[in-house]
Amino acid sequence: MERLTRRLRSIVGDASCLARDEELFVYQCDGLTLEGTRPLAVVLPERTDQVQAIVRACLEAGVPFVPRGAGTGLSGGAHPVPGSVLIECSRMDRILEINVADRVAVVQPGLVNAELSEAVRRHGLFYAPDPSSQQVCTIGGNVAENSGGPHTLKYGTTTNHVLAVELVLPNGEVVRLGSRTGSAEGFDLVGPIVGSEGTLGIVTEATLRLSPIPESVETLLAIFPDVVSACHAVGEVIGGGLVPAALEIVDQRTIRAVEDSVYAAGLPRDAGAILIAELDGARCELPPQVERVREAAERCGASRVQVAADEQERTLFWRARKGAFGAMGRLAPDLYVHDAVVPRAKLPEVLEAVCAIGDRHGLKLSNVFHAGDGNLHPNISFDRRDPDELARVLQAGREILETCVRAGGVITGEHGVGVEKLDYMKLVFDDDDLLPMIHLRAAFDPDRVCNPGKVIPTTRFCVESNPKARGYDRVPL
Amino acid sequence: MSGFDVRAALERELGPDRLSEAVGAPAAFAVQPGDGGALASTLRILGEARARAQVRGRGTHDELGNGPVEVDALLSTRGLCGIEELDTQDGVVRVRAGTSLAELAEAVTPHGWELPLGAPGSASVGGTLASAAIGPRRLGQGPPRDCVLGLDVVLTTGEQTRCGGRVVKNVTGFDLAKLYTGSFGALGVIEAAWLRLSPLPETVAVRVASLAAGSDPMDTAIDAARRPTARCAALLDRSIAERIGISATSDAALLVEFAGSEPAVREDERWLCGRCAAAPVAGDVVDALAGAQRRALPDGGARARVGLLPSACGRAAQALRASGAHLIVHAGVGLVYAEWSEAGESVAAVEQVAAQAHGEARFELLPADLKRGRDVFGVGTDTRARVELMRSLKQRFDPAGVLNPGRCLGRL
Fold it and tell me: What is the SS3 assignment for B349?
């Protein structure tokens, strides 16, 4: 181990290789804080050749490695595995090229998401994927997790905006995949790399599509007696052929937490739920669309529908949504943010079932979610120091996912499988379904040295096909 | 197992009525499984025998790719037909691979939805996805990968697998649907798909612009493509314009289709008319362009598709025209279709243009003598790294090398 550390220091310098216990403490988990493992070392490269040298040093030492961006992931995708080196890419944070004419940007993986939109705004462009953590999360992490956000309803997730990547393969080779033209020949290899949670290699450069800032934006806030009515309104809007930029629902428990916090937006505390609908496009086309959304909301029982009069009011509406997770801190010391997707038409019944699960386990469960995508985020506020409550939280989590899968949904829409949901993969996929995933993984990383133990649960195939996988192919939760 | 034994084994497994003589393919026989289980049995038998098969939906994209290579079996997915579920509220549909796009469009349109796939109506869903086929509305529809939510794919080792799902946002496991889409059936055979539909536009307007002398037609084409409702913006050489019934008064004509809300479409039309003289034409001109983009050429002709950045299209167009090509340029999405009545200079021209512009090109049609020994994909591009990864994938997904041998990039 000391030999490896010396080698890593020689690659990135002493200050960029952390190996003392107190330095490693903060790297033992990402946004999934239920459990963690300290890595052997953390390295902070600034260039592709350094990443390549780190990977080669790890291979020679027989040590697995785990890539990490800002560590904001919520499923443990960047959790170190026992005896691993953590390759933290946050210092690779440069914008390498902005091509305004072709609406393309080339960036390093450590660039913070929001900084890209900021950098291109003066050209009338923006980078569309906007996860809630966009002020701190990195493009590399977004690529690894195929991150979404409120506006993916219209603009798609990260995968729709990545044209090409430079990747350090798990064998240390550097390859460029995809094409900045968007028409690469051959298999679409960028597609499966996006969302692969850093298991197929380490992205050291991403070529991204930029979008034009829409001419006009209208934001509505509708107040409903309950969350189910708000869900019906979402169904009416989508079924009516509109594609809003965002359709977000915040439930009563969250509204109250927000109103009690510094994020207070002046919402009525007795509202059962609010729906935030955002429409964007040409200025001339939005007024009739606003009316269609208003009518749909009122038909479904909205007691009040307000259209933001200006940017200030629009920001206020979004405050309730964007401040929700921060406000949850008032409810309990810990927060378990779930992530599942169901067919939109099933939202009302699934929401009712999810709330019933929370009640049955005596938990503080609230919902803030991307309703337009059918992407639920049931949030459970709890205290991990209470083992009984923790057990109920985990049990409720399983029941929520089972409910979503029974409704035709899946176990994660944007947070990823990581280590958190390994055991739940079998709710959606059987061994046969997992086989091509194992093939894909093996084509890129036959020795399972790159972020092992993530995404794919252990199956008969893994152990049969690769005995080296034994020993570090699972991280216990 | 000999070819005869393979046929006999398939007859025993599927019944003799599922086998026939192969028509229009260099195969010893044709097999048409009627359901997913039969498809799995077929592939398992072919895989165990290390037999080689050409997979065909409705044959619309047969000419695309390397080859043809002689195979033992023509595996048709036409027996896998029908729409299994249409969710008219969510705008998603589950459809079996052999279903035609026309049949699917007919089913979804009355409910206010349309299929964002640009292949001709006669094409099968499976073939369209396997070849990632696009049409002239690629600008508005996006690439086929964007509308694929989930796939059922059968491997040559006999497993019936699923990836993705029916929901519009999903990161449950690797995104294999994108890997399969455009892989020319080299990894597995698509049995069924969950597709995302698009709302039918409120209004569609098609105009043809005569481009004023002195203005840069490519700039106008790119600007038109960037209007909010532009669904197709194609710059056509006069010969191609005339072929689809547009009488061009200059060397090139700009064909633009706007689709969306009524006020936004009208605003974009006004913008176009302010930029150049643009007359309304019937919407089926865009469908005619789809036909022109994939028409059969006289013997000795060639057609290439070159992918470029929009800003590189002008220079590339000049170089391609200099080699005798007639062009359809979708500058907004950086795609140039070039056709030559005589293939002579085509290969050198495409190689040079793609290499200079860091683009990616393919030959969609090429005379047999020029095609032999040449990779029609990745022309002018260094594809070695990706081909190595593709080979590694091919070996794992299709270890016996059954599916569409030699057809895709790298002649895998």
Answer: helix
Q: Which residue has the tokens 């990747």?
A: A167
Q: Chain A residue closest to B169 (CA)?
A: A413
Helices (H) and strands (E) in chain B, counts: 14, 20
Q: What is the pLDDT of residues A366-380, one digit of tens each?
A: 999 999 999 999 999
ipTM over cut 0.95: yes
Kindly give the pairing relationship between strand A304-307 and strand A41-43. unpaired
Q: State which residues of chain B have pLDDT below 50.
A: none
CB B268 within 8 A of CB B258: yes
Q: How near does any CA of chain B get to the CA of A172, in Å?
A: 13
Longest dimension (CA), chain A: 69
Contacts of B226 in chain A (CB under 8 A): 212
In chain A, the percentage of residues whose pLDDT exceeds 70 is 96
Is the minimum CB–CB distance between B159 and chain A shorter than 8 Å? Answer: yes
By the 10 Å C-beta count (0-12 exposed, 13-18 middle, 19+ buried), A362 is classed as exposed
Average pLDDT, chain A: 93
Q: Do A412 and B161 touch (CB under 8 A)?
A: no
Q: What integer pLDDT is reported at residue A459 of this predicted model?
A: 57
Token look-up 């919407």 returns: B283
pTM of the model: 0.96
Which has the closest alpha carbon to A255: A354, A331, A362, A335? A331
Yes or no, beta carbons of B390 and A186 under 8 Å apart: yes
Structure tokens at B203: 């209004």
The predicted-structure confidence for A332-362, as pLDDT tens digits, reads as follows: 999 999 999 999 999 999 999 999 999 999 9
Q: Tell whether A285 is within 8 A of chain B (Cβ).
A: yes
What the block records as the tokens of B409 is 């990039």
- Nearest chain A Cα distance for residue B22, angstroms: 27
Dihedral through CA A140, CA A394, CA B172, CA A81, nearest 10? 50
| Cβ atoms < 10 Å from Cβ of A188 | 21
Q: In this complex, do B389 and A444 lie within 8 Å of one another by their Cβ atoms?
A: yes
**What DSSP letter does each residue of B48-108 carry, written as one string?**
HTT--EEEESSSTTTTSSS----EEEEEE-TTS--EEEEETTTTEEEEETT-BHHHHHHHH
Alpha-carbon distance of A384 to B6, in angstroms, equals 61
**CA nearest to B184, candidates B355, B380, B397:** B397
Burial (CB < 10 A; 0-12, 13-18, 19+), residue A279, is buried
CB contacts of B406 in chain A (<8 Å) are: none
Which residue from A104, A187, A235 is facing B393, i.e. has the nearest CB?
A: A187
Partner-chain contact A285 B392, CB within 8 Å: no
Cα A168 from chain centre: 22
Cβ(B141)–Cβ(B201) below 8 Å: no
Please tell me the distance from the alpha carbon of residue B186 to that of residue B182, in angstroms, as a whole number: 9
Q: Give the strand pairing for A41-43 and A85-88.
A: parallel
Tell me which chain A residue has its CA closest to the CA of residue B142. A160
**Of the candidates A282, A288, A410, which has its C-beta nearest B172's C-beta?**
A410
The tally of CA atoms less than 13 A away on the side-chain side of residue A205 is 19
Element (H, E) at B8: helix B3-14
pLDDT at B67: 85
